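Technical annex B. To support the medicinal chemistry partners, we prepared a structural model of the target in complex with NAP, based solely on the information shown next.
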Amino acid sequence: MTLENRVAVITGAAGGLGSVVTRDLAAQGARLALLGRSAERLESLKRDLALPEARLLIRTADLLNPSEAKSAAEAVTTKFGKIDILLHLVGGWTGGKTLTEVPAEDVTVMLDQHLWTTFHSVRAFLPEMVKNGWGRVVVVSSPFASRPAARGGPYAIGKAAQEALMLTLSQELKGSGVTANMLLVKSIDTKAERQTHPSPENASWTTPEELSAAILYLLSEETGTLNGARIPMYSGFKNNLPVSLRHREFFVLSLDRLVFFRWSTSLSIS
Ligand SMILES: NC(=O)c1ccc[n+]([C@@H]2O[C@H](COP(=O)([O-])OP(=O)(O)OC[C@H]3O[C@@H](n4cnc5c(N)ncnc54)[C@H](OP(=O)(O)O)[C@@H]3O)[C@@H](O)[C@H]2O)c1
């Protein structure tokens, strides 16, 4: 697989998942527009990537602000001439209080992080993809969006709103050549603790590398008809639905659809 002719916008690029995905897309030859709020973190990522200027745009933007999202999109098209991919990896978590204890502000913050940054990003970056008849929009959600846990209300509300946005988008994109899909994880295992300190708790976690491999698959030509999917990327989820992974292919039976993947790279998920 190569992404040599693709322009990818990665929001939250300097985050735990974003930095791994950015590295993998760079290795596939994509031209990258990397967004976040912290100039320092983006500069550090830029140093690590060491890409030629022609392949990289670094831009600070608070995606809660629609005009910042829009001017970032204009900067991307000015530099690269098009946009093919939006990986919206902005995140954040708050929890620990019941709905009667939690300050309303916590719900607002989670809706900001998960719903409103997605809303503004989609509206800024999508029109260019639709215009060109090809595109991929990918976000990472959580099983807690549809099966909330006690004391996790604000986060579940934020992710449920983001999922409703993405599912609406997938309906509106039918026949456009652009797809909108979600990967679902419980927890991202940024320190590879599932390997180094295995425990019942981290057995269901997903590494950034596993997620990045799934994202690369969603960016491929072969997934042009995969749209509106909620793809579970964690093990041990409720109902014990079968997840099997054998060498280069695996099946995932999710609650609402059967998804078949044929992988072009080796991947290991337990
Ligand atoms: N971590 C998990 O266990 C987990 C579980 C389920 C789903 N997810 C989802 O997976 C994705 C990646 O998660 P992660 O753990 O890699 O996140 P992370 O490490 O917390 O990084 C989040 C990134 O979002 C950026 N960001 C936050 N608010 C922003 C805003 N208003 N405008 C622009 N950028 C903003 C931050 O940039 P600055 O630092 O520059 O502000 C940061 O780089 C997120 O969508 C998250 O919801 C994560």
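Notes passed to the chemistry partners:
Residues 7-239 form a domain with the Rossmann fold fold (CATH 3.40.50.720).
Confidence is low (pLDDT under 50) at residues 237-270.
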